[in-house]
Amino acid sequence: MxxxxxxxxxxxxxxxxxQAALTTTGxxxxxxxxxxxxxxxxxxxxxxxMEAIGMMRTTIPGQSGQGVEFTSITxxxxxxxxxxxxxxxxxxxxxxxxxxxxxxxxxIINEPTDTGIRQVIENFWNSWQELSKNPENLTARSVVxxxxxxLSDAFNHTxxxxxxxxxxxxxxxxxKVTQTNxxxxxxxxxxxxxxxxxxxxxxxxxxxxxxxxxLDDLSKIINVNVTETDSGYNVRMGNIELVNGxxxxxxxxxxxxxxxxxxxDLASGEVYGMxxxxxxxxxxxxxxxxxxxxxxxxxxTEVTLPAGAVIPAGTILNGTTYTGSIAxxxxxxxxxxxxxxxxGLHSLGYALSNGEAKQGGVFFQxxxxxxxxxxxxxxxxxxxxxxxxxxxxxxxxxxxxxxNKVKVVKGNNDLALLAAGLRSNRFDFMANSTExxxxxxxxxxxxxxxxxxxxxxxxxxxHRQATNxxxxxxxxxxxxxxxxxxxxxxxxxxxxxxxxxxNAAARALTVQDEILDKVINGMGVVGR
Length: 528
Hints:
Elements: H1 6-30, E1 40-46, E2 68-75, H2 79-109, H3 117-133, H4 138-199, H5 205-221, E3 225-229, E4 232-237, E5 240-244, E6 247-248, H6 254-262, H7 270-298, E7 300-305, E8 315-317, E9 320-322, E10 335-340, H8 341-346, E11 350-351, E12 364-366, E13 378-380, H9 382-386, E14 392-394, E15 397-400, E16 405-408, H10 414-421, E17 427-428, E18 441-442, H11 444-484, H12 488-522
Antiparallel strand pairs: 1-2, 3-4, 4-5, 5-6, 7-10, 8-9, 11-14, 12-13, 15-16, 17-18
Helix pairs in contact: 1-12, 2-4, 2-5, 2-7, 2-11, 3-4, 3-10, 4-5, 4-7, 7-11
């Protein structure tokens, strides 16, 4: 049986439904610039008809429709695109950090320039070349001393900057660990709120958007895998469970995060890039510089000592110990020997002295008292810094009959020439390194060029990867926005559509009111 007031009820339902649609459209427009917001739609369905099928139904043909209702307000979201975004975003986070670290190392190494390490090394070799022209000149010796100090300072400063960069990365890891723990806790809390809201039959659209924004941010810091269950999102990093429904399972520390890196559960993201950059790039280039300095100072290399050179007493060369008189220690012909780096060569000469001949000591030493010389602790022997006459340049001595003392031939430049010639000597850098280096055998200049070249290639590759990942992330985000983003043109069209429908429903309600007024107040009054 049809209801007398059925038309009013149909119009009322239409008014309420389209009012909800207009309100939702306004909500979409208001959040057009809100990060992570997913547009929402009102799901309109036809209301159930008046009579169900049955033996007691009326004989009036057809079922009487009862207008429109809205069953839910849902957000438009594509989980598949979210998964793609997480996968690309973690790689973007990793390569961005790696590229940033390598660019900082490039700035520290500062090559190729006229103010970098290469230039101070060049100045060091040139100073010895100049000293060989006038070995008695104190000014030339002062230039050698100052160029050696500049070389030591340059390597000290570079090593310190690399150490500072390593410390900065460690601090950033701690910051990212704190952010990760906070986000994990917030995701678990949102799971709880969403569970409670949706348990009452509502759609927690805005809370779900907040949760997805957190996952977007988290996916850049670490690699995440997300699955949805009845109790909310379950979030994992490799085999480590972070969130299980309404519970935050894992809270990280810097140590546990590094353990996850070792176990490969942490396989990408900013934290992965930081640990890799600190323990890989920064540590590697510190090792390269240490190997270079250690090789320069004490790395074995072959030199040819000139005929007439007088070997200091007690010196062992090629298994032979030189002792006795000057004649016994004088080389009769050019002799190829193996020396232990610049220090070993320097100790074969004699200082500039007016008194008895004085064997040259070590040229470089450590400034911290350790036995292991590195780029961070190399320094010039204080005896040389305090008195440039202690720089060895001569390899000739003679017995002075006036006082029967062995004295140095001051004008001899044999050792100065050999020292200047070390720049073209080949060394085995692997023998002075605990790790693989850029170049195994070669000159010091070749080794440093190999280090700089390796750094350039690595930086170029990291920049390429970061750029490509940024493009991929932007593409996935563009596809997500095409599905979930708010289009002002579409919302304005919907607003006009729903407004017209609302006005039409209001007009239908007015018509029903006029009909009932006629029936109630105008019928059955004839003959009164």
